[in-house]
Design a protein that fits this description.
The complex is a heterotrimer. Chain A is of the alpha+beta class. Chain A folds into two domains: about 160 residues, Periplasmic binding protein-like II (D-Maltodextrin-Binding Protein, domain 2, 3-Layer(aba) Sandwich); about 210 residues, D-Maltodextrin-Binding Protein, domain 2 (3-Layer(aba) Sandwich). Helix content of chain A is about 45%, strand content about 10%. In chain A, the strands form four sheets. In chain A, strands 2-1-3-11 form a four-stranded mixed β-sheet. In chain A, strands 10-6-12 form a three-stranded antiparallel β-sheet. Chain A is globular, with a radius of gyration of 22 Å. Chain B is mainly α. Chain B has a two-stranded antiparallel ribbon. The longest helix of chain B has about 35 residues. Chain B is globular and about 75 Å long. In chain B, about 50% of the residues are buried. By secondary structure, chain C is mainly α. Chain C has two domains: about 60 residues; about 210 residues, MetI-like fold, CATH 1.10.3720.10. In chain C, helix 3 packs across helix 7, helix 3 packs antiparallel against helix 10 and helix 10 packs antiparallel against helix 13. The N terminus of chain C is likely disordered. Classes of the chains: A alpha+beta, B mainly alpha, C mainly alpha. Chains B and C meet through helix 1, helix 3, helix 4, helix 5 and helix 6 of B and helix 1, helix 3, helix 4, helix 5 and helix 9 of C.
Chain lengths: ~425, ~300, ~290
Amino acid sequence: MRKSALSFLALSLAFSILPLAAAPIRLLMWGGVPPESGPQLVCDAFNKEFASKGISIEYERFVNDDQGNMKLETNLLAGGDIDIYITYTMDRLRKRSTGNMALNLEPFMKKTGFNLDTAIGAEGAMISRIDGTTYGVASKTYNNGFWVNKNMFDAAGIPVPKSWTLDEFKAITRKLTKGSGDSKVYGAFLQTNSYKTLAAEFAGVNLGGNAVYSKDHKSTAIDNPVFEKALGTIVELMNDGSIPSHADSLSQKLQGAALFTSGKVAMVFGSWLYRDIKNVASYPHDFVAAYVPLPSDNSKAYYMNGGPGDQVCINPKSKNVEAAWTFVKWYVEGGIIPMAPFGRFPLYTKVDMAKLEATALAGVERYFDRASTVNGFLTPAKTFQVETFADPQVQAVLAEEFELAMLGSKAVKQALADAKRRSDPILAAKP
Amino acid sequence: MEATVPRRKSPRDDSVAGYAFIAPNLLIFAAFTLLPFVFTVATSFTDWDYTQGFGAIRFNGGHNYLEIWKDKWFLDSLKNTVFYVAGTVPVTIGIAVVLATVIDRAVAGKDLAKLLLFIPYISNIVAVSIVWTVLLAPSGPLAKAALAVGFRMPVWLADPHWVMTAIVAMSVWLGVGYAVMIYSAALGGIPEELYESGDIDGAGPFQKFFCITLPMLSHTTFFLTVTLIVAGFKVFGQIFTMTQGGPASSSHVLVYYIYTAAFRFFRMGYASTISVVLFAFLLGVTVLQWRGQRKRED
Amino acid sequence: MGTTARKGKAGLILRILATTAVFAIALTFVAPLVWMVSASFKLPGDIFEFPVRWIPKTFRWQNYGIVWNFLPEAPRDYRFALAYFNSAKVTAINVFGSVLTSCLAGYAFAKLRFKGRDFLFLLYLSAMMIPQEVVLIPKFILFDRLGLIGTHWPIILPYLVTPTGTFLMRQYFLQIPDSLRESAKMDGAREFTIWRKIMLPLAMPAVASLGVLTFMWNWNNFLEPLVFLTRSRTYTIPVALAGFIDENLSDYSIIMAASVSALLPMVLVFLAGQKYFIKGLTAGAVKG
């Protein structure tokens, strides 16, 4: 034990002192997924394939939250250390494109004959461009929603719905709640400790992208009754103990994957938990999980939460932009496949979906309900809730006011009114 | 060994050596503290979205200084910082002076006791914060112990009304050892005869504490008050690790807001304004300290 | 110092009571840290046992193996060894640098006469009021412009000087009689030689005090590394620990193992240099 520590120390010392060898290009990529959940496999594959061309890539993980994104942006503003990185939301892509943190990719696309629309489809192209210029190529697609414990649904005699309204969601959550004390099973867990503005996502499923903001982005639109309904539903369920209270989520740092796989909750928000549910070694369980999208009261249109994403960007300050583009193109056109078993599916239109589905569920078929997983989770939805605008201060205000409502410190109506009162001047003051 | 350089100057003038000796110190200090300070003051009068680069600096007069008084985050930060200072300083000092006095009278193990009390102070703030986060959780040992005696504790860190109290309690725990250490050193300087004459006058332990110990320690108490107030205004680590300023903005403090305004909202000008306000408070404390000291010396 | 102590039986009983009380309180104070050490050896499921089992049922050494990436079950390398190395490197440079600059300037302010000395010293005194928190933003911008964000320079350069240390050293040098310097001067020694061969050896106790103090300040520094160290390979221990907690939110046993690892070196340095440490901390208080 001690020896390996010493040699590690010596090695790291050597690395920090020795300058890197001159000739071959070594790219650095930052992403929010832990390296062991796919990125390492991607890098290994790339390094093998491109060894002869003298390009290799290294992956570094940042935590995809406010703090982590700030770190990424600080690095991008500071210099050319990072060559490639992934942007996870449109508002951040916009900020990065206008803030000289993302390179205009059009010239490279032209030079290498990469047609965005045919490669990743119209929805994907839409979130890759800012005001008509490509700044990050969307690479993956996924449908957000709930994983539900099908065995519990069966036991309660409830069929797993393909779609549902907020009220249906509320009723089912209540029905699935049972027991008390240590044996209590909650109807659902909504991860409100990390997703404080979850109510806004629910609203977006009804209203489409940018639901929080007015068309001109000069004020908020959270006076739309959908927000009150969504936040109100969450608060009601917390109050009657059908879902863990926000205080419990916060103070116990409750984790969706652990609660769901241990049978403490019947449903869990966040279909990205797929990669944990699959990991039966770390999260042992023996029930079947089924997929259900987020509830919506809009019977005319459904805007899927999630959708195409993971825009791959190049740092304008990178010294290896050509090599970086080589990687981006390779990644989007199928290099991403090793990520599929971890829940990130290629957006590339020419990828063989059937083969992918087989890969995604290989060895874990018995833990997933095939019909809902394949048709609901794996098959890309048609319309998405595409967020193209967000203001960090307004997001912070929403998180705080929604949080107060969820803690019961404020009535839902009051919280929404206060959120609007606080946010509108912030937006109005922006140039 | 050394060749003497014949000097013309008066033997009392050591200019060359003097400047050479202070040069490294002064240069680094000027480059990384003094000049940045001037820069903070200058940027506090601007509106500057850092993501837009240097071209985006806009002088906006004293607008930021007006805006802060309408900004809930700033007002909450200020209120919570003052609450923190008003909570930690008297409680830490109160506990420490009693403890130090009692330790001084203890039969054995004085040094060991002081050492045990002191360890939290030298500990990594992130490590102790996470320990307290777990201790204060509803499933943690404190809540369970309270429940065992039939008392339901608040959910400290998730309750807007209690979160600052929890942070204060944790910070008192951090600081008491330091204050005890300082007091113990000062107690050693109180002449034993004072207590003996107290004995002769028939004073009890409490009388002696209030009439001899406390007055003799007033200088140290003053020093500690100033030091702890200054430290209190700079509180950050606990807040960052335990609550991230939450729930909502109920545990925002000034340094945490400087941090978020600058590195989450990238509002460099506005964040500088808050920095200047923080400095103004510290300046006020220092001026009071100087005045107090002068009074003492008179 | 209470050497002669209270006479009589009542006094003795009082003092025994005081001793018991003091130890009860002192133990309560370290209890959270003892709990941390104990939890770091427990199974994740045993952490919230109540009543608290101070000595774990089963010792799970693996927690440390996971944190330090020694064992195959470690999900990945959290680079804790690297963080230790970074902390040690930065702390060593800063302790050496700041002690050196403090000794040089403190000596000049105490013993040398030159124009502007008193003004400069006053400047120092007032600068002690400018906390690093207040200059965080301009320093960030400065280091950003210099392309040094993400390297260790932003947490080294400013910390090569401490006004408090300079002040401390000046106070100490003032106590050393001038005659020592004058007789050396008479023998024709150069100023630097006097400082190096005569004054510095005499100031060693103060150097040691300042050394352990700056060790603590640098080892535990959090805000600036958090802002300036944007690359995980440059993380110092507090930042690495914060990141580790972020990633392992619910696995408290390994978080506690990481926390124990983080504060052990500081405790050891403190135990070794206790005497100097306390002298350094009380110097300001006693002098005022």
